[in-house]
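Deliverable D5.2: sample structural annotation.
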Amino acid sequence: QVQLVESGGGLVQPGGSLRLSCAASGSFDSVGVMAWYRQAPGKQRELVALITGVRSSSYAGSVKGRFTISRNNANNTVHLQMNSLKLEDTAVYYCNANIYTGRVARDSWGQGTQVTVSS
């Protein structure tokens, strides 16, 4: 069974920084695209950033220039460095990854980690 386990959420003041991490574990052959999504209260889940296996990345316009996504293919981890955090970044952040067993891809999700930006 494949698991994505997130860590690094918490409470931070506006302008502060947090680093989220997500590790894939279990039985699989490879990991494709990895991404971070977020869902604020009363809003739909939205894509924050994604990174491919060759480390090509893209970002939502609202976080571009403030957040950086990175990955370590050796240990199947993905990170999200969040700088200059704003009140509107408050949300539950979810890790997402395409996990491959042979040629079959499974869309996997973490349990979510709360990020609260508040003064």
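Annotation notes: The chain has a mean pLDDT of 97. The chain is about 0% helix and 60% strand.
The annotation will be released with the project's public dataset once the embargo ends.
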